[in-house]
Amino acid sequence: MISVAEAIQIVRQQTRPLPSERVKLHDALNRVLAEDIVADSDLPPFDRSQMDGYAVRAEETSDAPVRLRIVGESAAGKGWHHEVNQGEAVRIMTGAPVPAGADSVQQVELAHELKDGAVVELLESVEVGKSIVKRGAEIKAGEIVLQSGVAINAAMMAVLAAFGYAEVVVGQRPRVGVLATGSELVSVDEKPGQDQIRDSNNYSIAAYAQLAGAVVQRLPLARDETSVLSQLISEAAKSCDAIVTSGGVSMGVYDVTKAALKELDAEIFFERVALRPGKPTVFARLPNGTFVFGLPGNPVSVAVTFNLFARTALLAMQGVTDPALKHETAVLARSVKGNVDRESYLPAQLTTNDDGELIAFPLKWGGSSDFVAFAITTALIIVPAGTKTLEANSLVRVVRLP
Ligand code: AMP
Ligand code: MG
User: Fold this and answer.
1) Which of 248, 375, 245 is nearest to 300 (CA)?
2) Contact by Cβ (8 Å): 304, 278
3) What angle do CA 12, 382, 359 make, to 5 degrees?
4) Which residue, among 136, 156, 135, 141, has the nearest Cα to 40 in the 3D structure?
5) Could you tell me if the CB of 184 is within 6 A of ligand 1?
6) What 3-state DSSP class applies to 121?
7) Average pLDDT over residues 210-238
8) Residue range 210-235: average pLDDT?
């Protein structure tokens, strides 16, 4: 049995980024950058006014109030491209270029125009540089503004647009086959008969896979029969970078997932992890290169093991620099029990208290089959193997769920 950290390490070692592809900017949200993004121009591209007001020579305002002759107007998109000389001012708008000769902008609230706009009276003096953002003060042309390996968020879309990336190079999205095993399973649109239940794992797995950026392919429900399962897996492998199965990995007579993988000559990297819930999780690769995550059948185990292992692989395949769930530290609101030889990942919710501390509330749950209680889970509390009890108010490691 290997530790969770070792299992994640193996997943990271075995997975490589898929080839990159070029997409239009408006299709780039949530995709993973496969190139560094470089500024093609200074930002701002010219000395820019931060205010509506008057561009002036600061030294001429020291004895304010002072009257200056208005010689022009600089608006955003239509600058005034002459020199401001002694005794002169230029009416200027937010975002407009500051004309040569001027070294400050006095805001409109501290000035008023006279003589039909021919003259402005500045009521207060203004210091050099006031309300001007110098060319290149924010970003210099040639600077890297976004690093390869990050997922593109909404704010980054603005950065890409501002520097002219009409197309971006991103990691390909992995194609993921989702395959529920279990002779007891019927699909969501059927009424379960005697001894049957509806398949729910395929829906959570597909959803988590989508959140991880994968393109999901839903496969037919598989009976607990080795040949049926191996047939489905080998067919799906032709068009999938990874297949995520659920069920059939425990020690029962009908747990046929590993038998099917062996029949297909898969290389099995691990099949038991010191993890609760989720011990019998399997990670393997088929001869054609398709990865298989054989998750346990219990829905909570599915959520935990998917996010620890399969999610890490899917992000790594898109080129994410840091694909595993990040550990954070929280204060435990209520005591929790651990396990002798397995690391526990317990359902929890996170909040902050008035002191700004992150608080982890363990949720009441009826074990790894209790997917209803799990539905309000936002994070998992990590209890190290061999820890009997973690007391209330102690510091604990947590991971947030997507
Ligand atoms: P297994 O790992 O196949 O022994 O399954 C463990 C438990 O999870 C059993 O109670 C199964 O009925 C249940 N289970 C397995 N697959 C699914 C599924 N796709 N949806 C909901 N429950 C499942
Ligand atoms: Mg089963």
Assistant:
1) 375
2) yes
3) 125
4) 141
5) yes
6) strand
7) 97
8) 97
- How far apart CA 184 and CA 192 sit, in angstroms, is 9
Whether 3 and 272 have beta carbons less than 8 Å apart is answered as: no
Instruction: Express each pLDDT in 279-299 by its tens digit.
Output: 999 999 999 999 999 999 999
Residue among 318, 265, 310, 316 nearest 288 (CA) = 265
Phi and psi at residue 302, in whole multiples of 5°? Answer: -60, -50
Q: What is the dihedral of CA 399, 350, 392, 342, to 10 degrees?
A: -30
Task: Indicate the burial class of 303 (C-beta count within 10 angstroms; 0-12, 13-18, 19 or more).
Answer: buried
Q: Give me 192's structure tokens.
A: 């379960």
User: Residue 284 and residue 266: Cα distance in Å, rounded?
Assistant: 6
Ligand 1 atom at minimum distance from 248 CA: 3
Report CA-CA distances (Å) from 60 to 47, 66, 108.
20, 8, 17
Instruction: State which amino acid sits at residue 243.
Output: I
Of 258, 39, 11, nearest to 165 (Cα)?
39
Paired tokens of 295: 């998750």
Atom of ligand 1 nearest to the CA of 247: 3
- In this predicted structure, what is the pLDDT of residue 366? 87
Does residue 196's CB lie within 6 angstroms of at least one atom of ligand 1?
no
The response to whether residue 204 sits with its C-beta less than 6 Å from ligand 1 reads no
* pLDDT of 117 strictly over 90: yes
Element (H, E) at 343: strand 343-352
Q: Of the candidates 307, 299, 304, which has an alpha carbon nearest to the alpha carbon of residue 368?
A: 299
Those residues with Cβ within 8 angstroms of residue 207's Cβ, 6 or more apart along the chain or in another chain: none
Contact 230, 260 (CB under 8 A): yes
Nearest protein Cα to ligand 1, atom 5: 297
Q: Residue 283 corresponds to which tokens in the numbers above? A: 């990670």
- For ligand 1, atom 15, name the residue with the nearest CA: 297
**Nearest atom (ligand 1) to Cα of 180:** 19
DSSP letter string, 252-294: STT--HHHHHHHTTPEEEES-BSEES-TT-EEEE-TTS-EEEE
DSSP 3-state of 312: helix
Q: Answer whether residue 367 shows pLDDT above 90.
A: no
